[in-house]
């Protein structure tokens, strides 16, 4: 693309975006349990408000695509700082809803800054890593980018909103693409596995034996490949890691019983099968699974789902919207939504790889990671495979903040990609 040429925005991403918006709105309309139809712009109904949020999202898209492409890189750090201040301001000026102080009240509207913080953090990470002489092999640089990612998450957790904080693990995809070793992800997965294994088995030493066995297998495989004995420093490191694992495993019950809230402990217990509570904390998950299972192959039809129309699934318009799709659209409809999200993530990775500019590539991988985590965790939660952590399904769950936040996140990258042939440092 030469200077003055028109940008070429990726049509596939735009079509996927519009398809998800349409399916989401139809599902919100169905989940509203309308007794009297007063038009799609009825502001007393959630589907009417969502039309308004969608209209404003189109305005946001127009504004983003009309901006100077270099604006986002130049002011990425400033946008990130403003985002952090908006998260901190919640502790003083925030409005509490459903036990969480995560919103600003703007008259009859509410705004959730954590939904916009993801795009701001992605810009900041891309800005930092694309700087001159920045390398993830440098401990200082690694710690700094880790701090950039951790700060918004640390501000979000006390609201409390651990689900939104969980999403920041998505930045590993971008960091790995830029050279971060898979060992860091392995350590996180081992920590999670050891934690859950200790809870499920009820004793720390069985989980530890499994961990040590896996470590020994790994070391023996490396010894066989290199045809020599493992160096003493590697053996010492293994012993140190084993000791840390023992202490970590011993502290599992304390962490679980004292640092997590009752609702989070109960949800984890239900998913792990340690308790059964279909009428209490587990009610949402149980009703959601019933709704999805009752849809069969082709579903019961729009406005025909008994679970959906009867209002048996709480928060179905937001976090549990996929259960309405499963019931009324069936396996075919649910599979279509999953394919759309997988196509979205796959296309984003392709777009990220074709970037000539490092800032755009890092931002693209961050966007792909964020959408994947949201899609994976939300659907896993609705199907009862993961604990209920309260994160929305992008472009489909009801709400202006979520829709606008995801739209901004996506279309900044659409803008960067559209100018990829001419966009340089």
From TrEMBL:
Domain of life: Bacteria
Pfam families for the chain: FTSW_RODA_SPOVE
GO biological process: cell division; regulation of cell shape
Membrane topology: Multi-pass membrane protein
Keywords assigned by UniProt, alphabetized: Cell shape, Membrane, Transmembrane, Transmembrane helix
Gene Ontology terms: cellular component: cell division site; plasma membrane
Membrane-spanning residues: 12-31, 51-71, 78-96, 116-135, 142-161, 181-214, 235-256, 329-350, 362-383, 395-414
Molecular function (Gene Ontology), one example: lipid-linked peptidoglycan transporter activity
Cellular compartment(s): Membrane
Record's protein name: Rod shape-determining protein RodA
Organism from which the protein derives: Nonlabens arenilitoris
């Amino acid at each position: 693309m030469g200077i003055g040429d028109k940008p070429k925005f990726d049509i596939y991403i735009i079509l996927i975006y519009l398809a998800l918006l349409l399916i989401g709105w139809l599902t919100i309309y169905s989940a509203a349990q309308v007794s009297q139809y007063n038009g799609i712009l009825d502001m007393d109904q959630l589907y009417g408000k969502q039309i308004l949020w969608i209209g404003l999202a189109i305005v946001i898209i127009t504004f983003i695509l009309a901006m100077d492409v270099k604006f986002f890189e130049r002011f990425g750090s400033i946008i990130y700082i403003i985002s952090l201040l908006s998260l901190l301001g919640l502790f003083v000026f925030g409005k509490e809803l459903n036990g969480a102080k995560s919103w600003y009240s703007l008259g009859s509207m509410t705004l959730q800054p954590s939904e916009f913080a993801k795009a701001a953090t992605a810009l900041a990470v891309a800005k930092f890593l694309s700087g001159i002489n920045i390398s993830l092999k440098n401990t200082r640089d690694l710690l700094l980018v880790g701090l950039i990612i951790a700060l918004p998450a640390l501000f979000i957790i006390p609201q409390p909103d651990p689900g939104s904080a969980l999403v920041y693990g998505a930045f590993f995809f971008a960091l790995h693409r830029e050279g971060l070793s898979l060992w860091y992800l392995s350590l996180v997965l081992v920590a999670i596995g050891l934690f859950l294994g200790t809870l499920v088995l009820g004793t720390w030493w069985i989980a530890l034996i499994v961990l040590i066995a896996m470590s020994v297998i790994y070391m023996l495989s490396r010894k066989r490949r290199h045809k020599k004995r493992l160096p003493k420093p590697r053996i010492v490191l293994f012993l140190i890691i084993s000791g840390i694992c023992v202490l970590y495993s011993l502290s599992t019950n304390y962490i679980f019983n004292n640092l997590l809230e009752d609702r989070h402990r109960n949800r984890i217990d239900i998913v792990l099968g340690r308790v059964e509570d279909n009428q209490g904390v587990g009610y949402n998950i149980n009703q959601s699974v019933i709704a999805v299972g009752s849809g069969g192959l082709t579903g019961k039809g729009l406005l025909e789902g008994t679970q959906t129309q009867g209002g048996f699934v709480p928060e179905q318009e937001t976090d549990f919207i996929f259960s309405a799709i499963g019931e009324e659209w069936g396996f075919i409809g649910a599979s279509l939504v999953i394919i759309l999200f997988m196509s979205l993530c796959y296309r984003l990775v392709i777009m990220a790889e074709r970037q000539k500019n490092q800032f755009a590539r890092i931002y693209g991988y961050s966007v792909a990671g964020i959408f994947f985590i949201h899609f994976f965790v939300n659907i896993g939660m609705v199907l009862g495979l993961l604990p209920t952590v309260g994160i929305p399904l992008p472009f489909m769950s009801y709400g202006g903040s979520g829709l606008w936040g995801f739209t901004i996140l996506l279309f900044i990258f659409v803008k960067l990609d559209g100018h990829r042939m001419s966009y340089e440092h």
